[in-house]
């Protein structure tokens, strides 16, 4: 017997991720929260986003367990948004997007961002490895849903 998801050709892990992160603003909100910008007004200033759209994105990211909202001061009305472990799990995704942009954009576009190891000062890259941390060439990959 097949489940409903197995019969749906559009449903897959990527589809599930896009249901949480697939709009124009969600990953940008996540990016800024991971950078330490965690107050509503600061996020709005950083992103130049309408208040109602930001409120919707924050609510959906909180509902999905990506962010957690907490008062800035005990019993205060002003809130801040902090990353959850689920949010921290998106760091490799963001690094991969930066790497993809650096590899496939013009020189002008790719100068804006890179990921640096704070200890060594060296640029970080994302790779695909097996269970023993051995690199796997792209030609050997098969993505199955």
Describe the structure.
By secondary structure, this protein is mainly alpha-helical. The chain folds into two domains: 85 residues, Arc Repressor Mutant, subunit A; 50 residues, no CATH class. 45% of the residues lie in helices and 7% in strands. The protein has eight helices and two strands; from the N terminus they run αααααββααα. The protein has a two-stranded antiparallel ribbon. The radius of gyration is 18 Å and the shape is globular. The mean pLDDT is 87.
Outline of the structure:
With 145 residues, the protein is mainly α. Helices cover 45% and strands 7% of the residues. The protein contains eight helices and two strands, in the order αααααββααα.
């Amino acid at each position: 017997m097949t489940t409903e998801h197995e019969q749906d050709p559009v449903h897959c892990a990527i589809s599930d991720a896009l249901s949480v992160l697939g709009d124009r603003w969600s990953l940008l909100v996540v990016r800024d929260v991971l950078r330490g910008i965690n107050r509503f007004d600061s996020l709005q200033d950083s992103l130049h986003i309408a208040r109602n759209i930001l409120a919707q994105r924050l609510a959906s990211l909180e509902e999905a367990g990506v962010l957690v909202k907490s008062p800035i001061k005990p019993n205060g009305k002003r809130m801040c948004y902090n990353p959850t472990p689920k949010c921290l799990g998106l760091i490799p995704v963001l690094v991969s997007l930066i790497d993809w942009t650096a590899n496939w954009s013009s020189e002008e576009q790719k100068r804006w961002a890179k990921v640096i190891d704070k200890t060594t000062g060296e640029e970080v890259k994302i790779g695909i490895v097996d269970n023993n941390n051995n690199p796997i060439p792209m030609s050997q990959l098969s993505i199955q849903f």
